[in-house]
Description:
The chain is an alpha/beta fold. It is built from eight helices and twelve strands.
Amino acid sequence: xxxxxxxxxxxxxxxxxxxxxxxxxxxxxxxxxxxxxxxxxxxxxxxxxxxxxxxxxxxxxxxxxxxxxxxxxxxxxxxxxxxxxxxxxxxxxxxxxxxxxxxxxxxxxxxxxxxxxxxxxxxxxxxxxxxxxxxxxxxxxxxxxxxxxxxxxxxxxxxxxxxxxxxxxxxxxxxxxxxxxxxxxxxxxxxxxxxxxxxxxxxxxxxxxxxxxxxxxxxxxxxxxxxxxxxxxxxxxxxxxxxxxxxxx
Length: 249
């Protein structure tokens, strides 16, 4: 984490974020975790990846996050979501490195959080559903694929210009995506302004404190909602990191 985090403020921001989702018609499941869990468990996006058949539970690359997987598996099962695979063996995979690009294509970024073996195990699950996994290298200066690209609407994506490598760009353009470029300024890097969640085509929920990014998105025709998540930003994350996506219409 980048700064000392106030857990009580973080908790208030969690409930306010849940309410922001509720206002947009999103069903929210709040996850309570055992006291012995790592503080990083708040970053739920990393801990699983959802497929049409159910969740693939991650296997964390960092030693300090080992064991978080069992807590998210229990929470998913308690809420009735099937668990179709747990990443095992020498494979590591984190959900924030995996991204649906269309109904038949998932991008997986490999680097220091996800390896090729992890991408292969996910590919086995998705291959049975007729979905292709395309492996791309993680870009420079980001922890996950989530830091490089985020869809805004069908075939339009925001990209962190310095972190979106040629392989990722070729994949996106080949699938017909229009790329909205953002340079690595303070709003992108420090305020985590692109660490957002698309709620519907052309509608996103993004962190407060990045007015330049908001103006740019609105100029592109995107409707923007904001929520204050400053304590999560201190912990090197944002709205996208703390939101595990369970289902989209």
